[in-house]
Amino acid sequence: MDLKIFDRMESEVRGYVRSFPVIFQQARGSTLIDETGREYIDFFSGAGTLNYGHNNAELKGKLLEYLEEDGLVHGLDMASTAKKYFMETFERVLLAPRNWQYKLQFTGPTGTNAVEAALKLARLVKGRSNIISFTHGFHGVSAGSLAATANSKFRQAAGMTLGNTTFMPYDGYMGPDFNTITYLERLLEDPSSGMDHPAAVIVETVQGEGGVNVANRQWLKDLETLCRQHDMLLIVDDIQVGCGRTGSFFSFEQAGIRPDIITLSKSLSGFGLPMSLVLFKPELDIWKPGAHSGTFRGNNLAFVTAAQALDSYWSDKRFEQDIRRKEAMVRDWLENLVHSYPMAGLSVRGRGLIQGLVTPARGGLAGSIARKAFEQGLVVETSGANDEVLKLLPALTIPDAQLRQGLEIIERSLAAALAEQEQREQAKVLKFGGKGR
Ligand code: PLP
Predict the structure, then answer these.
(1) Is the minimum distance from the CB of 351 to ligand 1 under 6 angstroms?
(2) Residue 157 C-alpha to ligand 1 middle, in angstroms?
(3) Could you tell me the pTM of the whole model?
(4) Ligand 1: centre distance to CA 278 (Å)
(5) Domains of the chain, start order
(6) pLDDT at 434 over 90
(7) What is the pLDDT of residue 299?
(8) Sheet holding 31-34, edge to edge
(9) Distance between CA atoms of 218 and 22, rounded to whole angstroms?
(10) More confident residue, 436 or 355
(11) What percent of the chain has pLDDT over 90?
């Protein structure tokens, strides 16, 4: 495959094409197909954007029907039939059964646009600028969201000082015996802690980019309580792990918390079409008309597929049960790997169909597994501060047989990567006469 034009014309900033250096041409369900006709199983799902698979037939059918009838495609934030139906469906399928009242703000099309709006609104409501974010958190790379993103690679690329954010240790950051909420509580209660009183806390219930770090349910509940006690808004960034990824439509439901503000994007349109949404409690809606704007807030094609995705998958509980069944399958498989290779220092963590195979922080094992898996026809990525976590994000709709095939590839790739590591170690021992440096 000739990738020269990508090297010659596309900026050095390009990323995923380096990890998966082929030219993809088609995709169906959980299968990606490159220009030579080679097929790959997709355990990446566009970083969590394709929860219902590529070119999902039901969603595509609705989209084609809509286009065939010359349905409105672009409409800023004017009222449209597609948007009306999306809001009615959102209310009927998600809000009404939970007895939740949230206002909807449609922002520019990508996740970071939703986060920018959420942070801006929280600051406006509380009249304070500081926001609490967490170690290893990822919220986007535009200036406001980047300030709340922990990863130094992205922060260093900002070209300016990023401020108005205080980073706190996420659940488990200080080890299993340290409750990081008590630290945050101490700072909030101490008028001389040096921390400016925050307007809000922004949190992911499972940190996707940060290494599949899972917040304990009680930790999330305690965080909510702390927000109420200290007059801070609770923002759950559900961009990566919302829309069913953890087993329920909203990832925080299992913790029984009610955030003040929620951001959604990625799999919201269900078809890979850009769409972002901010939900907030009605009393927070202090926006002046047009005070926050954007040309692409009305992706009507995304509204069509998003409404259909809610109708097709979230109108009854069977889909959730199926996600849990697949979660158990993936989890068992990965845990077996951990037990099969006790010397490799592996562990597993995750919730629903975001599962991480955690490898030692140094040594590049996860990257090596991902590369070998790709050679064998599986697209899977790594995450975490040192790219030490192999992050499994299969479509929620993946057929069992394909899920198994993908897991088998991971198993073979792990065995090959460990064998290679072992050979390297032995070569070192030979070279340094047992002093292995
Ligand atoms: N928030 C979370 C939790 C994310 O995982 C991401 C992207 O990975 C974003 C925000 C930013 O979304 P986008 O890349 O669409 O701007």
Answers:
(1) no
(2) 17
(3) 0.97
(4) 13
(5) 4-56+318-430 (3.90.1150.10), 59-313 (3.40.640.10)
(6) no
(7) 96
(8) 24-28, 31-34, 39-42, 378-379
(9) 44
(10) 355
(11) 96
